[in-house]
């Protein structure tokens, strides 16, 4: 028997032994983890990968961003990560500062302090829609899909009491009456209802808490770092997988402040939604919601907006974009691009080494900067 054959046989026996010990049989999920841009350094990310592999026998971690891969910045790591996902070398990935397309946002997962209950927050980063109420309606569908991929067959839905909550509730009730099946959660407060208060947040009353993305992002930071003073996220599962119509990758988000325990749980989270077929469930949930009239409801909501807001922005003639303008928040990057289109300045969005960027032709850079400054996107 050759040495290579011996190694393969030994590997098979090790896999069988691990499966017997864990009770998990079948292929391990391979989860990519980018190693750049954490405020806690590369070692914290590597520690998280080690924790994940030691605690969860049904996954393995592929570290992206090591010296041998010649990554000079996070954008390079994302390029490698995307290629591996496209080539099916990874089942899912965990990273930060990923530029999701418009219409995709992430479903976070926290451990609530009231009773130690897990709860999904839909959503926590990304832009589901440029209009608040349609965004929260879509967030509901995405949250339900994520919950079902985790094995929660009939997830309960609560709507956080933020601006637009009552209108969201009204239109979700329409969907329910039209045949989209889900269950509303009931607030613990005396007056009940499906609109959730702070008490419901702390207790984790619904399986899925629906909110706008900015509020969801803030909640993730509070839930994960309230015991540490805010600089180290120690509790929870991270900001979760990006979910959206026609989005075909499983990419989960952490933040620069995420510590090893949260990152390890984020890796586990992505392995779980991969096993639970989140992408297929999302397609099914979106189809069911659309069959119940979601698209019509959203069209009606948007038609009530002002003509200026409803006006389609025409894309200018394409140009070679060889300059970058940075310093724009990821949640405003599409609006910034369209503000330039309105001025007949061709622009694209992208991800640079320091975060999201507007890509512009060199000849238009000065004018573009002036317009973006005038519109309040940059200082």
From TrEMBL:
Residues 42-69 form a coiled coil. This is Glycine/sarcosine/betaine reductase component C chain 2. The keyword Coiled coil applies. GO terms for molecular function: acyltransferase activity, transferring groups other than amino-acyl groups. InterPro entries: FA_synthesis, Gly_reductase_pC_asu. Keywords: Coiled coil. The active site is at 353.
């Amino acid at each position: 028997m050759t040495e290579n054959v011996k190694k393969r046989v030994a590997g098979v026996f090790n896999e069988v032994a691990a499966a017997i010990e864990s009770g998990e049989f079948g292929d391990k999920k391979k989860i990519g983890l980018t190693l750049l841009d954490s405020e806690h350094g590369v070692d914290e990310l590597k520690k998280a990968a080690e924790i994940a592999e030691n605690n969860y026998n049904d996954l393995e971690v592929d570290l992206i961003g090591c010296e041998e891969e010649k990554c000079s910045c996070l954008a390079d790591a994302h390029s490698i990560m995307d290629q591996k996902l496209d080539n099916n070398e990874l089942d899912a990935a965990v990273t930060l500062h990923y530029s999701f397309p418009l219409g995709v946002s992430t479903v976070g997962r926290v451990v609530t302090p009231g009773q130690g209950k897990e709860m999904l927050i839909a959503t926590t980063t990304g832009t589901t829609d440029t209009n608040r109420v349609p965004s929260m309606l879509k967030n509901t569908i995405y949250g339900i899909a994520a919950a079902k991929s985790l094995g929660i067959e009939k997830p309960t839905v609560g709507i956080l009491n933020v601006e637009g909550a009552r209108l969201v509730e009204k239109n979700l009730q329409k969907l329910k009456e039209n045949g989209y099946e889900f269950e509303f959660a009931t607030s613990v407060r005396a007056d009940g209802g499906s609109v959730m208060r702070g008490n419901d947040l702390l207790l984790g009353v619904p399986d899925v808490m629906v909110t706008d993305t900015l509020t969801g992002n803030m909640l993730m930071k509070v839930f994960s770092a309230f015991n540490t003073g805010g600089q180290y996220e120690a509790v929870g599962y991270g900001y979760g997988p990006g979910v959206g119509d026609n989005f075909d990758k499983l990419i989960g988000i952490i933040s620069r402040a995420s510590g090893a325990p949260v990152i390890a749980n984020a890796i586990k989270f992505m392995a779980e939604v991969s096993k639970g077929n989140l992408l297929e469930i999302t397609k099914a949930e979106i189809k069911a919601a659309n069959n119940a009239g979601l698209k019509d409801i959203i069209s009606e909501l948007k038609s009530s907006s002002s003509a200026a807001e409803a006006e389609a922005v025409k894309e200018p003639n394409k140009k070679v974009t060889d300059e970058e303008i940075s310093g724009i928040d990821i949640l405003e990057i599409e609006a910034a691009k369209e503000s330039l289109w309105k001025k007949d300045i061709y622009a694209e969005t992208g991800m640079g080494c320091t975060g999201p960027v507007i890509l512009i032709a060199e000849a238009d850079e000065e004018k573009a900067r002036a317009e973006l400054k005038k519109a309040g996107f940059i200082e």
